[in-house]
Every structure is written in C-alpha cells, then in structure tokens.
Amino acid sequence: MTFNTLLSLTTEKIVWFxxxxxxxxxxxxxxxxxxxxxxxxxxxxxxSCRIHAFMSEKLCDGFALDLKEGQLYSLSNFKxxxxxxxxINRCVRNEKHIYFDHxxxxxxxxxxxxxxxxxxxxxxxxQDIPKFLNDNRFLIDVVxxxxxxxxxxxxxxxxxxxxxxxxxxxDGRNExxxxxxxxxxxxxxxxxxxxxxxxxxxxxxxxxxxxxxxxQEIYLRNYPATRFYINPNHYSVSKIQKSMILGTEDKDEDxxxxxxxxxxxxxxxxxxxxxxxxxxxxxVDEQCxxxxxxxxxxxxxxxxxxxxxxxxxxxRNLPYPDKRFRVCTICADETGVLxxxxxxxxxxxxxxxxxxxxxxxxxxxxDEKRFPPxxxxxxxxxxxxxxxxxxxxxxxxxxxxxxxxxSDPLEMLGNHNPVEELSPDIEQISMNTEVDSTxxxxxxxxxxxxxxxxxxxxxxxxxxxxxxxxxNDVDRVSKLKKS
Length: 483
Hints:
Pfam families: DUF223, Rep_fac-A_C. By secondary structure, the protein is an alpha+beta fold.
C-alpha cells in the first residue's frame, strides 16, 4: 500500500492516506469557559515531516480511546487547511494543518514500527531564543546540557499546588534559562531523578519564550504542547555530549553557517575543510543519473564496455556492480545558488532505502526508467549541509559541490515580519493550568498538558503569584542536589 507524505498534502481534496506517529497529544480548552474543545496532535511521518492536527470534541468518542503519544497510525480521508496567518503559539512550522471529520479513518499500526523515528524536532540554537520574544506566532524546540545539581525547585507557601522548577541548558557556547510550572515541573523533577548521571542532555520541544519583568531575564516556559526528552536517541544529543563532556568536537568542521555567497569566495585555506551551509533544495535534477555503478573493492565508478561492466581503475570486468545514489540538486539561500550532489550514505539514512529498493518500486509501477518519486521529495526542503570544497571548487574550475553530510529536513519558517512587541504589563508567570488526563506512554518524555489555543486574542493583566520556599521544600531541593 502506498502512503502519501505529509509534505505532499494539499487543500484541494480529502482523499489522503498517511502513516504517522503521534509525537505529542494535548487537550484544547477554552480559557474563558474551561470548555473542552478537542485534542491537538503533532504527527510525524517517515520523512521526519511534522504537522499539527485537530480532533474536535464531537469526534473524540470515536477516536480518543486509541489516541496515545508514540503510537503509529494510518490516517485517511481528512481535511487539510492552511493557516490564516493570525494564529499564535503554533507548535509546528508548517503552513498546513489537518482536521479530522466524520469521514476520517484512524487506525493503529502495530507492525513495521521501526520504520519511523520516535520523534522529530525543529531545533534552534540557544542564541536564537531572544528572537522569539517579540514573535508570538511560534513555539520553539531547543537542546542543551543540564547540570542536575543546579536545578532549583520552588513551591508557593500560600498554595502548595503551585510550584516551579528552574534550570539552565548549555550548548558549549550559550545558555538558556528554563522554568517549568506546577505538575509539569514536578513530572520533570521526577524524571530527572531517574537518571543517575550528573549531566544530562535535554530536548525541550514546543516551549514558550517569555521574559521576567523584575530582571528582564528571558526564559523558556512550558505550554500545553511542551514536551521534554531526557537523553533521547537523537543526533543532537550525541553531538552535545561529544563537544561538552568528551571534549572531542570535530576540529576540522567549522560550526559557522556559511552563506552561498561566502562559500563561493572561500580561499585555499578551506580546501578539503568541512564547512556548513543552510540551504533550500530548489530543484532535484531529474535529467541526471540518480545512481552510479561502483566497484566495491577499489571504490571507483564502473562503466559498460562491450556489454560488460568494467572498472576503469583496476581494468577488471565485473559480474555485477554495486549501485549507489548520486542525486544532483540545485540549492539556494538568500545570497545565491549552489549545485550540490547528495551522497549515497546520507540519502539512504534519510529515506531508509537503497538504490535497489527504488529500482524495485519502479518495476512494480511499470516504469523502470522513471525518476524515483521518493527522491523528488528532497525538493523544497531545507537542510544544513556539510561540504568539503575541493581544489577545483576553490580554483573556480568546478561550481558543483559534493555534500558530506545532510541534516534531517528542517521545517521552514518562511518569510514573516515579527508581530508587535508584547505589552510589558503582561504578567510573566501564568499558573492557570491543569494537567491533561491523557496518559503518556513514552517513559522518557513529559506528560501532556492542557489549555491550548492558537487564536489571536486580547490579553488581560493577571495577578502575580508570590512564591516562597517552605522548610520542607528546602530539604527536597537538597536531596535533588545530592542525587
């Protein structure tokens, strides 16, 4: 059975069939009436594309019992809408979102669960957090190292049910303050105690950027969509552990993001040096061969001579060569255009398939000469790409670059102007939240929360909540520091 990708969804029809994982689930609650409006879901697919979905309360009786975080589903016959542009606190940077209706079919998938990643993120550098303070359209995903001994836990003396857990994240260059409130913070504290190591890497997904009025300190706080992941199996975790704990960061790779214009002006000092660029794939060239034949032993291309495969390097005839991806792309950023060839190992990692898999799909489709549709899905996506300029690139003898590494596809923010700065009289700590009764079956992540809305609305001043540390809480903090 063929599944549609989330990236291919359009608003023109409802006959779609996707295979997705529910990465996050939370209730939508009307803040004024406390009325339950339905369930919000973040779905991810095999290409690590994310999309927000909404299930209204009228449909919950038919679906809610089977709705669990981490579960795989087949989803079909649903509506796709575009955002209007005035929504706030969006958890996914996708211009479209999914709406369940009475025709929607929603079923668990219990097989092939290994084919899809457990989660996908749109990670921003910690240094980018202040940029989101005056732009309330989106929540933010970040990753950093946390030192458990400096985590502080404060409980309100007047209302013990109100509390906050405060800690810092580090990435080797910058730091960010994070504050989790009430039961969400308590759940984080409990999860932290389950890890014996002093330093852990934490991914905070869908966090809200706020500022304390008293000291103008910018910090991240939990929102209904917020989730935390402690030492998850994700490439960003190993990268931070490597650079901060082992101190063995790759010195040959410059962490600076170069623009296309800057890459074209690099000098001889950058020959064979790893550099990074952040570009969008504008075109996947379907006229070029999408794979090459290789002789495995000498790692050279194989050509056909007199009807036989022959290695031009060792001059041997081969019964059958190895086949490897070689996808030619046209990439660009705001400064220019760069032809880049995507390598075999990275294409296999991202797609989960090799050349033989795609050849077989073409045969089954009755068109062995077609350009594989799966490879076209690189188009219109944004990547952080590691390049290693050759002598020919630097000497301007060749304008084509060969990629060494590709990040997972980045969600594209698009071109937007930040909204007006938030009024300074808006209270920085909102404790008017409840805990979602929906259970989370992923042991490493945070519990669902509630009271979500993404409509622009007027804001009212709130009364500040005074938080003091009780004597019994001092003991609790001391125990956490020792753990």
